[in-house]
Amino acid sequence: MVRAGLSTERLTRAGAELADEVGFDRVTVSALARRFDVKVASLYSHLKNSQDLKTRIALFALEELADRVAAALAGRAGKDALAAFADTYRDYAREHPGRYAAAQLRLDAETAAASAGGRHAQMTRAILRGYDLTEPDRTHAVRMLGSVFHGYIGLEMGGGFSHTAVDPQESWSWIVDSLDSLLRNRTAP
């Protein structure tokens, strides 16, 4: 019998909240069952196992973040779009650290293709339309932006910038300005 009020969607959202509270790596079906004060077995009518739960949280986070990025990019171009894109990722990671970590989960090819991950790549490429880049530079730029933004966010969230007097926000702005300059002034080798 399915417990009243429990659904795959509700469990996924609760799992995302749990990830933000305790860390994505600590999310399990058992931990989720404790949250609802139910037996683990009662969740298996909605979830296959902890990996299924983590995959669902990752898909949820990718979709939620893509929606936020799309809203932030609306009507923007060039540096304004680049900054909005970067800031939205950083703000999301600060607000939802567990979900942000979930969005980095490696998905199998079929699941990834059906996820909002493609929207993230499309939006990154849309930003780059504001710069005069052709292939393969556009692909290199997509990879560079992802590396820089995710790398900075990961280091910042791990406390990597807490030991200097320079405000991390100053560095973030400097990086976005530098990336904009690099992209605007990129010439073919």
Keywords:
mainly alpha; Tetracycline Repressor, domain 2; 67% helix
Quick gist of this model?
The chain is mostly helical and 189 residues long.
Question: How would you sum up this structure, described in words?
Answer:
The protein has 189 residues and is mostly helical. The protein has a single domain, classed as Tetracycline Repressor, domain 2 (Orthogonal Bundle), CATH 1.10.357.10. Helix content is 67%, strand content 0%. The protein has helices at 8-22, 29-36, 50-73, 78-95, 97-102, 109-114, 117-128, 137-157, 168-184. α1 (8-22) packs across α3. It is elongated and about 60 Å long. It starts with 7 loop residues before the first helix and ends in a 5-residue tail after the last helix. Pfam families: TetR_C_33 (PF13305), TetR_N (PF00440). Keywords: DNA-binding, Transcription, Transcription regulation. This is TetR-like C-terminal domain-containing protein. Residues 5-65 form the HTH tetR-type domain. It comes from Streptomyces glomeratus.
Class based on secondary structure composition and strand pairing:
mainly alpha
Average the pLDDT over all residues and give the rounded result.
Answer: 94
Please state the overall shape, judged from the principal axes of the Cα atoms.
Answer: elongated
> Which CATH-level-2 architecture?
Orthogonal Bundle
- State the share of residues found in helices, binned by percent: 55-70%
Radius of gyration based on Cα positions: 19 Å
| CATH top-level class | Mainly Alpha
Number of strands: 0
CATH fold type: Tetracycline Repressor, domain 2
Residue share in β-strands:
under 5%
Helix tally equals: 9
Characterize the main sheet: none
Could you list the spans in which at least 5 consecutive residues all have pLDDT below 50? none
Kindly report the name of the CATH homologous superfamily.
Tetracycline Repressor, domain 2
* Elements, N to C (H/E): HHHHHHHHH
Pfam families: TetR_C_33, TetR_N
Protein name: TetR-like C-terminal domain-containing protein
Keywords: DNA-binding, Transcription, Transcription regulation
InterPro entries: Homeodomain-like_sf, HTH-type_TetR-like_transc_reg, HTH_TetR, MT1864/Rv1816-like_C, Tet_transcr_reg_TetR-rel_C_sf
